[in-house]
Automatic annotation (TrEMBL):
Species name: Mycobacterium haemophilum
PE domain location: 4-94
InterPro entries in the record: PE-PGRS_N, PGRS_rpt, PPE_sf
Protein's name in the database: PE domain-containing protein
Pfam families: PE (PF00934), PGRS (PF21526)
Region of interest (Disordered), ranges: 247-305, 350-386, 450-552
Compositionally biased intervals (Gly residues): 269-290, 354-363, 373-386, 458-528
Biased composition (Low complexity): 291-304
């Protein structure tokens, strides 16, 4: 028995499996007992009764044998379970004194060096617990270095603890946002691998242009061992979302010429062009209003209102300029036509995301009495909205840390860290809204004769401007450099060992999402309707509706 080994956990599992098997067999026997031990005869003759009695006797004998087997199975499971418990108790009893003895010896040996040198003779170094705390050094004779703790925001990660004579260096802690990762601890002087460097922190606005922080350098090996791998560089800061600037104020409005009144046909002058945007007033000026025209006498005369003035051109930083309104037209004599002036079109926004200029309203047309026709002026179309501002570019990822040097005699150098991923580009800003289409001029007739031949037609409403295009998403940042200059792979050992490979560049950041398309808020201006003439003159015909603005 001195050569027998047992695993208490495995014995306990086997006992549970055997118990499950016995339970399943007992359930099957109980289910079959009723139908097999009490068989009914197939007929009332003696032969059938004898056959049924024979099979019933066999079934009863089987049930008796099964009960004996089940009792033996249960006893076996109980013995096996008790054996597992005995093995576990013996193992615990033997282990506890040895562990206590081992810990007691280590406490006596390590206490002097811990007080004098801050590290034990045998044992692993403690891991850092507070942000940025380095790992403790391993035992002078034997033990691994402790791992460094991750840094807080702006705080580098803690360095990994160094090993003593034999042992591996601790891992460097990850750097906080905007800070470098901790360096890996050195491997044992005689034998041991260097610890890997910590990951660099992500880029932060206002620190180094948002570039990801560098990864920690890998720890160097001692006489024999492999250098630690450099830490991965931090990811670059994401680009800012595009923001549309506020459009500047408008330049001066175009001149409005004097109205004209007189006999015979009259035509109003067109409104003046708005001033061009310049300097602190980048938005073009609104076009001037067309002059009104009134015909007071004459035969078959026509009064025509002046067209609205064109808006001034906007420069960078300005919104779309509004078109001038058309002039009104009035005929007061018995036989004449009145035609309102057309409104001018608005212009497209010049600043990113700015709205288009509104279209000018059409002039109203009115005849006071007599034979004739009226037609209101058409409203001007709204200007198109400007494209939204583009999102900002993502920052570059941080450089990977340098690989540690391999063992002096034998060992490979550590690989350089992978560069951090570039930041995601910022989303584009929304496009500007389209300008509102100008309202159409009204047409009004007020005839006084029973034989008058009069009609009125409202002008067409202006089209709403098209919404601006969404802004382009920002370009994703470039991936970080794999390994800092001179810190590619660590050097191999003098007698044997290969240099580590340089870290690969990190992936570039994804491009930002495009902004939301601008809305077309412009609607067609309402048309004028023919006014009802007092009896016995006929009513004017309704004007046509203005067209709806197109969607962005």
């Amino acid at each position: 028995m001195s050569f027998v080994t047992a695993v208490p956990e495995a014995v306990s599992v086997a006992a549970n499996d055997l118990a499950s098997i016995g339970s399943a067999i007992n359930s099957a026997n109980a289910a079959a007992a009723l139908s097999t031990t009490g068989m009914m005869a197939a007929a009332a003759d003696e032969v059938s009764a004898g056959i049924a009695a024979l099979f019933g006797a066999y079934a009863q004998a089987y049930q008796a044998l099964s009960n004996q087997a089940a009792a033996f199975h249960e006893q076996f499971v109980q013995v096996l379970t008790a054996g597992a418990g005995s093995y576990a108790a013996a193992e615990a009893a033997n282990a506890s004194p040895l562990q206590m003895l081992e810990q007691g010896v280590l406490d006596v040996v390590n206490a002097p060096t811990q007080v004098l040198l801050g590290r034990p003779i045998i044992g692993n170094g403690t891991n850092g617990t507070t942000p940025g705390q380095p790992g403790g050094a391993g035992g002078l004779l034997f033990g691994n270095g402790g791992n460094g703790a991750a840094g807080a925001v702006g705080q580098p990660g803690g360095a990994g603890g160094a090993a003593g004579l034999i042992g591996n260096g601790g891992m460097g802690g990850a750097g906080g946002a905007g800070a470098a990762g901790g360096a890996g601890g050195a491997g044992g002087w005689l034998y041991g691998n260097g610890g890997s460097g910590g990951t660099g922190g992500v880029g932060v606005a206002g620190i180094n242009g948002g570039i990801g922080a560098v990864g920690g350098n890998g720890g160097n090996a001692g006489l024999i061992g492999t250098g630690g791998a450099g830490g991965t560089g931090g990811a670059g800061l994401a680009g800012a979302t595009g923001v549309n600037p506020t459009a500047g104020p408008a330049a001066s409005t175009g001149t409005s010429p004097a109205d004209v009144v007189g006999p015979d046909s009259q035509t109003g002058s067109n409104g003046g062009t708005g001033a061009t945007g310049v300097g602190l007033t980048p938005t073009g000026g609104t076009g001037g209003e067309g002059a009104s025209a009134t015909s007071t006498s004459g035969t078959s005369v026509t009064a025509t209102g002046g067209a609205g003035g064109n808006p001034g051109a906007s420069i960078a930083g300005g919104a779309g300029a509004a078109g001038g309104a058309g002039g009104n037209a009035t005929v007061t004599n018995f036989n004449g036509n009145a035609i309102g002036g057309n409104g001018a079109n608005g212009t497209m926004g010049a600043a990113p995301g700015s709205s288009g200029g509104d279209g000018g309203a059409g002039g109203n047309a009115t005849t006071i009495r007599g034979v004739g026709a009226t037609q209101g002026g058409s409203g001007g179309s709204g200007g198109n909205g400007a494209t939204g501002a583009s999102g900002g570019n993502g920052s570059a990822g941080g450089a990977g840390g340098a690989g540690g040097t391999g063992g002096t005699l034998f060992g490979n150098g550590g690989n350089g860290g992978v560069g951090g991923a570039g930041g995601v580009g910022g989303g584009g800003a929304a496009g500007g809204a389209g300008g509102i289409g100008g309202n159409a001029g009204t047409a009004t007739v007020n005839g006084t004769s029973s034989s008058a031949n009069i009609s009125s037609t409202g002008g067409a409403g202006g089209h709403g401007g098209t919404g601006g295009n969404a802004g382009n998403g920002g370009t994703g940042g470039t991936g970080g450099i794999g390994g800092v200059p001179g810190g590619t792979g660590g050097h191999g050992g003098l007698l044997s060992g290969a240099s580590g490979t340089g870290g690969t560049a990190g992936p570039g950041g994804a491009g930002g999402a495009g902004g939301v398309g601008g809305t077309s808020v412009g609607t067609g201006g309402t048309s004028g309707t023919g006014a009802i003439s007092p009896p016995p003159g006929p009513n004017g015909t309704p004007g046509t509706n203005g067209a709806d603005g197109s969607h962005g």
